[in-house]
Structure formats: structure tokens, C-alpha cells
Amino acid sequence: MAEAAPEGARGVLLRGAPGGESWAYIAFSLSPVPLPGGLYPEFSEARRRADRVAAERTWLAALWTDRTTARWDLRFISDPASGRIETVVIAQLYGADPAAAVRAARDALPTLARLPAHVTGVRIEDTAEIARVLAPFVPGWGAIAEIRKRITCRTLTRLWGAERIATAVSRFDARDPSWERIWSQLAAEPRRTVVSVCLEPCSAPAGLAESLTMRAQAFGTLAAPGPPDPLYGGPVPGDPFAREAHALYDAASRRYTGRLHRARISVAVEGEAPVSDVLTGLIGHTVAPAGSGAVAVRPGSGEEHQVACGNLLGVNRDWQREAYWQEVPAFLRAPSRGQLWLSDPGTVTALADLVDADEAAAVFRLPHEEPGDPELFALSRRQPDTRPDGASAGDAGTGPGTGTGTGAGTGWADWADLGPGG
Predict the structure, then answer these.
(1) Which regions are flagged for Gly residues bias (predicted)?
(2) Tens-digit pLDDT profile for residues 284-331
(3) What whole-number distance in Å separates Cα of residue 23 and Cα of residue 105?
(4) E-assigned strand segments in 232-343
(5) Strands (E) located in 344-415
(6) Does residue 172 fall inside a structural domain?
(7) Within a domain: residue 235?
(8) 177 alpha-carbon distance from chain centroid
(9) Whole-model pTM above 0.85?
(10) Which of 87, 177, 211, 334 is the most core-located residue (most Cβ within 10 A)?
(11) Category of 112 on φ-ψ map: left (φ > 0), alpha (ψ -120 to 50) or beta
(12) Is 8 a residue whose pLDDT tops 60?
């Protein structure tokens, strides 16, 4: 059950962490700002799209922090009965004790509330409502998946020392993609479905750029034709996969520096039936269209299902020990006594969920609507909170997305053992 909040913590939901620390949750209900006739008459839809993207990038950059562990979860919750999507952004802030967690949450409020102009946000003051949007339902077996960067493992045609097996991690290569097709498909899903995008600010790991540069050089050597074979006399051709890996590691060495994020994209449906392949495939193609660099992974065991549910319901990003490795063989997953250049597990895990500013902007798209588009998003009836300290501006309404979260199977207690985690 939720802990009693310290004084002055109205609208902040507290949960105990495994080590005795605390996590604080605050949330905003989001809706696209309607574009009235006559607004931007001289601007094209492309110009409006560019303005939205620039505003969202600025907002995400302002949210970045290294003062405490923080996560931002943007989730879209479909309602088959109405054909509308409820949209919320949830902030999870860490504290050594409940009071520290509340202070971190309140420190984050002003920036979180300073949303781009094309989005309106209403603070969710009711902690039971925060619990509801965190856990609108608990996914059954097979009813949850995550969209991950593709990890590819290949046997090369040439050796690098004693190594012949190479591993490369793709990237989310879309440049400011539109999520309109994803939202349309989500609204049309016959079962309640959640799409959750979680970002955790982080700095580039120490030594990562140098490690990536050296591996890019190794793959570059293997990608180029080698010296003539003494037996056959002809030149040894470069390895095709080494060329792909060189391009990925070389780009990663330049992109993954400074302020970054860890990302998780979860998709879950209510009930026991599997997640829609159409929806997961659409998300993957949207965020990584050029190199097919995204893949949907599903838990392969009960333990992994528990981890996947905890990631969604607790705003976690815990590692699924089998599913996340994808096609990497078991003997290449544990740290080796010697130095591995072509398939180092530490490098692979570091890259698996690391995203730069471009990738973060591609996956964390706020709702918007263009004139004439179908109205996909539910509108809140709450009155916006304009007080700078984030305190309550009055009693909340009871419109779409503002229930009490007391329905069977949706309460906080139903998933208390799933999160928060690491």
C-alpha cells in the first residue's frame, strides 16, 4: 500500500523502494490544444510540425537532470468504447526518504508543467488517480511486449585475433517521426491497450566513447579488403556485416556523449491474448524506419513477465535476462576474462537502451491534432492548475481520465509486488 505522504505532499504519490528509499510520482493529464481557424494561416502543416518538434525537444532538454534519479513516462491508454486515447505524463523521482522524494518531485513540477504550446496539461492531484493511470490493468501472460533496439549477432568471414562472432546494436534512426498512424491504430484496438514510453536522464558512461571508437576501428579493418591469401593468391574481401557494425559503432561513438537518456517502450493489452503485431510493428517501423533497427521482444518466462509488468506498472527499466539479449548466444552474455572486441557484453548492454537527443525526441512524441484530423484524444474536464508551486487550484472534475481508480483489477494493491524497482 502507498505510504503516508509527508506534510505538503498533496498530489504526490509515494512508494517504498526495495532498499528502504522512496519514489515519488506526480502526473499530468495531457490533451492537444485545438488549432482554431485562422491560427497560423500563413504556415503550412510542415511548418507547424517543425514548430512542434522544436518545442518538444526544448521541453525534453529542460527536463534533463542529474541531481537525482528521475524518469518520465508518457503513456497513451486506449478506450475501445469511445475510440479515444487518454494521455498522461508521469514523473518518478527518487529520494533517500519520503521527504526527499517529495522535494525532488516538487522541484521537477515547474519544468514538467511548462509544456509546449500545442499541449495542455492538467495536474492530477488525486493520488488514487495517479495509481490508476500507472496501473490501468495488469497484463496477462503474453499480453505485454517492449520495443527495443535490434541486437544482431553474426559469424564473420574473417578473424580478429581469436574472435569471429560480432555483435552490433542498431539505433532508432527516425528523424522527428510522426506518431499519427500509431495513435490511429491504438484508438482502433479492440481491447484496452497501453503504450508507455519511459525516459531516464543519464550522462554518457565513462570511457564509452573511447571504447566505441576502438571497436569502430576494429570493424573498419575487417570491413576493408585484407592482404592477399597466400594459398589462393587473391585479396581477402571485407566482411559485409563488419561494414554494418563499423557504421553503427562509428556513429555511436560520436552520438553518445554528454547528456543522454535510457529508454523503454512498453505495449500491453488487457486480457490474456497477445499484443497486436500490427501495433508493435508500426511503432518499430516509426522509430527505426531506415535500418529496421527496432524489434518487439516478449517475455519468455514467468519471471520475465513479472519484470515486464513491473517496468510498465512501476515506471521501471529492469533487465529481462533472456528476451533483451535477442539472438546473442548465452556464452557471449557474461563478462569475459579477456578483452572482447567484436562482441563485448558490457558494450552491448550499455548501448541497448541508450538514446541521444534525436532518438529521445523520436520516441517521446506529445499528442497533437491537425484541423480536419479525427479527434483521437480524450479531453480532461479538470480546470488547469496555474499556481506556480503546483498546489491544488480547486476540486477536480470527473471527466474522462479522472476517475478514482477503485475499479476491480485496477487498484494499486493489485501490482504492489511489481514495482517500483531499479
Answers:
(1) 396-410
(2) 999 999 877 899 999 999 999 999 999 999 999 999 999 999 989 998
(3) 9
(4) 235-236, 259-269, 294-297
(5) 354-355
(6) yes
(7) no
(8) 15
(9) yes
(10) 87
(11) alpha
(12) no
Helix (H, G, I), strand (E, B) or coil at 306: helix
Q: What string of DSSP letters covers 23-88?
A: EEEEEEEEEEPP--TTSSTTS-HHHHHHHHHHHHHHHHHHH---SS-EEEEEEEEEETTTTEEEEE
Strands of 39-143, DSSP E: 70-79, 84-95, 119-123
Contact, 366 vs 74, CB < 8 A? yes
Strands 354-355 and 259-269, how do they pair? antiparallel
Peptide bond into 371 cis (omega under 30): no
Render pLDDT for 214-237 as a digit per residue (tens, 0 to 9): 999 999 999 998 877 777 667 788
Q: Are 183 and 376 in contact (CB under 8 A)?
A: yes
Neighbouring C-beta atoms of residue 374, cutoff 10 Å: 12
The C-alpha cell at 100 is: 526527499
From the list 145, 156, 163, 126, the residue with the least C-alpha distance to 2 is 126
Amino acid at 157: T
Residue 380: per-residue pLDDT: 63
Q: How many domains does the chain have?
A: 1
Range of the domain at 36: 13-204+258-418
In a domain, 253, yes or no: no
Least confident range from 283-292, 349-358, 391-400: namely: 391-400
Asked whether residue 272 is assigned to any structural domain, the reply reads yes
**Region class of 233: left (phi > 0), else alpha (psi between -120 and 50), else beta:** left
Q: What is the DSSP string of 195-215?
A: EEEEEEEEEPPTTHHHHHHHH
Residue 26 · residue 11 · CB < 8 Å: yes
